[in-house]
Specification:
The complex is a heterodimer of chains A (284) and B (85). Chain A is of the alpha+beta class and 284 residues long. Chain A has helices at residues 5-10, 35-48, 71-80, 111-122, 170-174, 199-203, 240-257, 264-271, 273-280; strands at 13-15, 21-25, 54-55, 61-67, 96-97, 133-136, 150-160, 180-182, 187-189, 209-219, 222-223, 227-228, 231-232. Chain A is globular. Chain A starts with a helix and ends with a helix. Classes of the chains: A alpha+beta (284), B alpha+beta (85). At the A-B interface, helix 5 and helix 6 of A face helix 2 and strand 3 of B.
Chain lengths: 284, 85
């Protein structure tokens, strides 16, 4: 029987330089695993691998040194413990995320909830080339949103409330964009300078800044053979449904215009940013 | 808020202009621990990271930040009322 290496790769088994040994890529969403899953991965590495696990550059896990003969057995073993194989090849890859507002004091959005929704909707979807989603909770950008084909960054749409304000001046200092000025009677915000970081909301001692969570989406990031920063074509979106609707439109655009083996960024540059902007309802 | 209310007089002072993060926070935290709840301290700190971040850190610790005033010499005066224990 000949080995179908392509089918193996599609199912998460990466061929190693060692003959008939494979590194099994696992499905991880937002770098989040239960301790039970981790124990199962640990056991599987002992039983079927060489007793070690590799942490990938995008929050994934791989179990290297699995013998060709054990491929079905290791998948079955992991499945019994709630661990699925990942994917390789021309499809939607691991959705990465920082811990976000559920854990991090700086977080502006629930990154894990959004990452799970994105993963449920698109993970493994076949496209002209690989496609990476990344979700970061705030402007600190620990997850490097703009490196991804589609990146999402949390932010706040902010509004000053005169009632609770003590005019203490903390917000004007906390703002790194110089968008806030404190007068004798009121605080003013220069909306053109505001980058939605939400530092005024987080710093205000009297809850005089109201922040509505939102999403900043970037398109066409690359950080491999070619390095390019993803571009924002839309303002702050305050509804997670819009993020999914726009992601649908971006993937459909990729599907419709992409040639096999062509990354999303290259397609957008060939077809034109205006075309993508129109597809997602934004401005180039 | 109709106009700036007068700030209370501090009962204690602290100068952390010789410290850098995270010692700025540590020094402020230690100084606040020595106060009674409700007491007010004036903390002199440098412009930049301390002025941007210390007010938020002390708020997160449960203290009331009353004011941040530019001293005009590259330092700021942060007025803080110690929160309930």
């Amino acid at each position: 029987m000949t080995t179908d290496y392509k089918a193996l790769k599609d199912g998460g088994f990466m061929r190693q330089i060692q003959k008939d040994r494979f590194s099994l890529r696992l499905k991880v969403v937002g770098g989040h695993l239960s301790s039970g899953q981790l124990r199962a991965v640990s056991d599987a590495a002992d039983r079927f691998g060489s007793g070690h696990v590799h942490l990938t550059s995008r929050q994934g896990l791989e179990i290297p040194f699995i013998a060709l003969a054990d491929i079905e057995a290791v998948k079955e073993y992991l499945a019994q413990h709630g661990v699925e194989a990942g994917v390789c090849g021309p499809r939607v890859r691991t959705v990465t995320a920082c811990q976000g507002a559920g854990v991090c004091p700086s977080g502006c959005i629930d990154t894990m909830a959004l990452a799970r929704r994105i993963s449920e909707r698109y993970f493994g979807r076949v496209l002209p080339h690989k496609f990476k989603f990344g979700v970061t909770g705030c402007r600190n950008n620990c997850l490097k949103a703009e490196e991804n084909d589609l990146g999402v960054k949390g932010g706040y749409a902010v509004r000053w409330l005169s009632g609770p304000c003590s005019l203490c001046g903390v917000c004007a200092k906390a703002c790194r964009e110089g968008a806030i000025s404190v007068g004798e009677r009121e605080v003013s915000l220069d909306a053109r300078k505001c980058n939605h970081c939400g530092r005024c909301v987080k710093a205000c001692p009297t809850e005089a800044w109201e922040g509505q969570s939102g999403f900043l989406v970037s398109f066409g990031g690359l950080f491999g053979n070619r390095i390019a920063q993803g571009r924002g074509l839309l303002g702050l979106l305050t509804d997670a449904e819009d993020v999914l609707r726009i992601s649908d439109a971006a993937l459909d655009f990729f599907d419709r215009h992409g040639r096999p083996g062509e990354r999303f960024r290259t397609v957008v540059e060939r077809v034109g940013w205006e075309g993508l902007a129109e597809a997602v309802g934004g401005r180039p | 808020m109709s106009a700036k209310a007068p700030l209370p007089r501090p009962g204690a002072t602290l100068d952390i202009t010789d410290a850098v993060c995270p010692l700025t926070f540590v020094k402020a935290k230690v100084a606040l621990e020595d106060l009674e709840a409700g007491q007010v301290i004036s903390i002199r700190l440098n412009d930049g990271e301390p002025a941007q971040n210390l007010p938020r850190s002390l708020k997160d610790e449960g203290h009331a930040v009353l004011g941040l005033t530019d001293n005009g010499d590259g330092t700021f005066a942060l007025l803080v009322r110690k929160g309930p224990a």
